[in-house]
Amino acid sequence: MVTLALIVLIAVTTGSCEANRDKKERRKNDHPDKSLWKKEYEDELTDAMLSSRKKDNVTRVVQSASVSDNEAVIDKLMETITSSEKYLKKVDSIDFRLNRLDIEVHEKTNNILKQLMEMMKVVRSDAYPEKLEGALETLKNEVNQIKFMMEKLPRSNIAVDGSEYHVDSSMDTRLSVIEANLKSVSAGVDSIISTISEVKNRQFTRTFSKAENTGPFGGAVDALNLINEFRRTLHEQKAKKCECKTGRFDRSERYPTDCHEIQMQGFNVSGIYKIKPDDMEPFYVLCDLTTAGGGWTVFQNRFDGSQDFYKSWSDYKHGFGNLAGEFWLGLEKLNSLTNQKLYELRVEMETQRGQEAYAAYSVFTVGPEHEGYRISTLGTFYGTAGDSLAYHAGQKFSTLDMDNDEWKDGACASEHGGAWWYKECDKSNLNGKYVTSTAEHRGQSIYWISFKPPTSPLSKTKMMIRPLPASKPMEFGEPARKVRN
């Protein structure tokens, strides 16, 4: 019995101990340690933050992966470039119209001069008063047309003074500013076009794999980089300030070197244009863009005797007369022109009875002043007037105050009333005195002996040059020139 009671007591005691142990364990679980609670809180906070980021990443992938957004950006940029091109075309059109207006003004001026000559003839004859009234009416109409064109022309005070043709300085400054702005716009457009080309190449040549499109960033990163390139380029162009200057802008690269280059630019109406030969400041010239294929730079023009050609060395060096009338361009300009390329020479002439002829030479070069502006190169002759210039090949130029001829007993310029490449003395004298009757000539008239003698003076002459498709001319000595005596 005692033994049984001991066994029961031990079992009860053991059960009680296990129950107490279970209660203690449950108390510990109900009141966990602070470090465990802190870790659990941090884990929950981290999960919350990661879940929000995942949502953001998914949204960015969906937005950037759409090609339609990129295409919209490209379309917008293309519209901007198109509008810029339209602006450039408008500016070119305005510049072309200004040149055409200049040409029209000079054509009307020439018509007025012709009408004045007709009026002078009518007044001298005193036989047809009705013709005088008609000429006055025509002249009035021409003047009104010029006034109308000048009102349309957005420039002030266009004048021809001596041998130079002046344009208002304010207009020149405005054109300089426009050109500076155009250069800036053109540079920006070129940069944008290059960026667009790069974007298009990447868009069409790059193949986005399935993993790239479905990854956390995928191909979206590349598309975003391209858009950022666009933004950077536009921002750089916007940040560039206009480098406009109030002073004169160097536009020498825009000027053609002669009338042939003007014709190559698309102009086909003869008139006054601005050129810039090598190593010279820009100046105006008369361009003949119709005769024998055009492209001729005129350096001598005579047709009515309104300009005195019995001038000094300084006058013939720098030029004189009116580009809208009779003039001599200048030996200095002629030297610069004929030494920048190989040029051919064409001399047109007409008698008082209207008979026309021409003389042309395959090469024509004038030397510098220290050589007396001699004819340093004269090529092969061709034409209908005969050769009356080969005799003067290699000769220096002479004027009334500068005797460079080979006549020991006198001065050819004084004897023949002009200025020319006299030898001993001449076979041509295109800068002689303008006379209208054979009794006045006395060997001082305008003549080209192989066409008409001095007793039949010429009424019109025009000397002009045009470049050949060759490089700069070589300086040949006397024996190397192709001339005919």
Automatic annotation (TrEMBL):
Keyword terms of this UniProt record: Disulfide bond, Signal
Residue span, Fibrinogen C-terminal domain: 250-469
Keyword presence, Signal: yes
Gene3D superfamilies assigned: Gamma Fibrinogen, chain A, domain 1
Regions annotated as coiled coil: none
Signal sequence bounds: 1-19
Pfam families: Fibrinogen_C (PF00147)
SMART domains noted in UniProt: FBG (SM00186)
Protein name: Fibrinogen C-terminal domain-containing protein
Classification via PANTHER family: FIBRINOGEN C-TERMINAL DOMAIN-CONTAINING PROTEIN-RELATED, FIBRINOGEN/TENASCIN/ANGIOPOEITIN
Membrane spanning stretches: none
